[in-house]
Amino acid sequence: MWINIPLSEVQRLSRFPCQLKEIGYTHGGLYQERTMYSLGKFEVCLRLYSQEKEAVDYLDGVKYVTKFPHVILKIPHVEHRYTIDAPRESFSLCYPPSVEMALRDICPFPPRPIWEFELDDIKSKLITELKELMQYSRNFSIADRMDLLAFQLIEELVFNAGTKKENQDYSEVKIRSIASYFQIHFREKINIDALAANHGMSRSTFTRHWRRFYDCPPGQYLLDLKLQYACRNLLEDAGLKVCDLSDRLSFQDPEYFCALFKKRFGMTPLEYRRVNNPAAQLTD
């Protein structure tokens, strides 16, 4: 799956200097060796997940071997050679070449064009919000919000570059990684057993370690993310149908979704929208 949203022609309300040219998301894809040149854009690409342990890239002839997740800067006219042997998930922020120097003046990018990062709660939430806004990119003021969120994400990536916790519990690394995956993929159907196995844990081991860092069970954590998303969308999209929202969140039965929503908030989704946004059109 590959999604690319152009933003250069979208009118902005603010004068923020670092405006996105486009934003993209990819999931999957296998490629033999490729040689690419980033023409007409400066790209900050976040490679989030892969079944590969490491990525091998040649930038301007220099070899880099990097573990996931990591950031790669795709600089205009610099040769980039790589191979993808297993599906990857990536998220890219693209700017006009003229914005590259503005970003570098503001943010102290590390000397290496590729560096590893920790996919913590802050970065995961920023990625999730940007992905949600991609479907509304032509709506009033949305592009401005995306510009600011993208810049905030770059700040997090740059200011934390090269920093690692000393004596970090390896099980904590796995649990935080899975929690970050939840935050990005909560709208999808997630096989928790398979996800735990991919991180070298059985379901019981995963659950035991999860309880060390989170107060609620993983299933409840996912449900909370879904319901938070539902609340935001009910208020932001006045014409959104409850059945469509249920489907968007991978619930098979809208009535079951409504029952869970009412149990949490004491009202149905339509009642929630009527109470919190009286001007909204009620649609079932």
Describe this structure in words.
The strands form 2 sheets. Strands 1-2-9-4-7-10 form a 6-stranded antiparallel β-sheet. A 4-stranded antiparallel β-sheet has the order 3-8-5-6, with no helix packed on it. α2 packs antiparallel against α3 (142-159) and α2 (121-134) runs parallel beside α4 (170-185). The chain is an alpha+beta fold and 284 residues long. The radius of gyration is 20 Å and the shape is globular. The chain has helices at residues 97-106, 121-134, 142-159, 170-185, 192-198, 203-213, 218-236, 242-248, 254-265, 269-276, and strands spanning 2-6, 22-27, 31-37, 42-50, 54-59, 62-67, 70-74, 79-84, 88-95, 114-116. Helices cover 43% and strands 21% of the residues. A hairpin with a 2-residue loop joins β5 and β6 (62-67). It is built from 10 helices and 10 strands. The model has no long low-confidence stretch (mean pLDDT 89).
